[in-house]
Amino acid sequence: MAKVKISAAPSIRRLPSYLHIIRRLQGEGNTFISGTVIAQELNLEPIQVRKDLSITGIIGRPKKGYPIQALIEAIEHFLGWDSPHDAVLVGAGSLGTALLGYGEFRYHGLRIVAAFDKNPQKIGSDIHGVTVFDNVNMEERIRSLEVTTAILTVPSVHAQETAGILVRAGIRGIWNFTNVKLKVPERVVVQKEDLSSGYAMFCVMLHAKKLEEDGRHGAGQD
Q1: What b/e string do you get for 21-40 counting C-beta neighbours within 10 Å, with b at 16 or more?
Q2: Count of other CB atoms within 10 angstroms of residue 176
Q3: Among residues 56, 79, 102, which one ends one of the domains?
Q4: Residue 111 and residue 153 in one domain
Q5: Do residues 119 and 41 lie in contact, with contact meaning Cβ atoms separated by under 8 Å?
Q6: 112 assigned to some structural domain
Q7: Does the pLDDT at position 217 exceed 60?
Q8: Would the pLDDT of 11 be above 60?
């Protein structure tokens, strides 16, 4: 995967949406796609799309756009989705179970090879084909699996303690779904996924749209 600057984060977040559109158009028989088409699909400016795609290293052809297969490969390579890697999931509750059943991960090179939980009713069970192990021997088992990526979905009160165990087990990347800002060594990458922030944005946008519509209706009554 390419070395990434923090300023590129918004562009990186848009790339999966681009990829979804590009794959759909490929399925319809297209071999080239323009940045303008992608921009129209997502209500973006074409110059923004071209800027975003430039971070993958691909260059479009004048009047033709981007060759679709090459563009797919460029985006997947930049995102690291063309190199399959294994991960463990810690916390097989409602959210963890949902993530274990999320089939799209396999298209992004992510394979969850084991899950961990402290609930006796979960331990030893298979959830969507993934075995749930006891948290007690988690450090040793992760070492034996030689996995370096973990998805953290434990209750927030246990997040920091669990992160410490993961680091000792050799985990180098934690996808953090708790609301805790983890304290880990600099060598460990942490991506915090704040679902409440996304929901907050959704609510504000929904409220703004309602006010806009109410304003139109009010104006129509004058």
Answers
A1: ebeebeeeeeebbbbebbbe
A2: 21
A3: 79
A4: yes
A5: no
A6: yes
A7: yes
A8: yes
Q: Is the pLDDT of residue 145 over 60?
A: yes
Q: Which amino acid is at 29?
A: G
Residue 123's Cβ-count burial label (10 Å; 0-12, 13-18, 19+) is middle
Question: How far apart (Å, rounded) are the C-alpha atoms in residues 102 and 175?
Answer: 15
Query: Would you state the pLDDT for residue 202?
Result: 86
Query: Which residue is listed with tokens 């319809």?
Result: 28
Q: Is 102 found in the same domain as 69?
A: no
With contact defined as beta carbons under 8 Å apart, do 123 and 134 qualify?
A: yes
What's the domain range around 116? 85-196
Tokens found for residue 57? 């290293």
Total structural domains in the chain?
2
Domain of residue 37, CATH code = 1.10.10.10
Give the strand pairing for 110-117 and 130-134: parallel
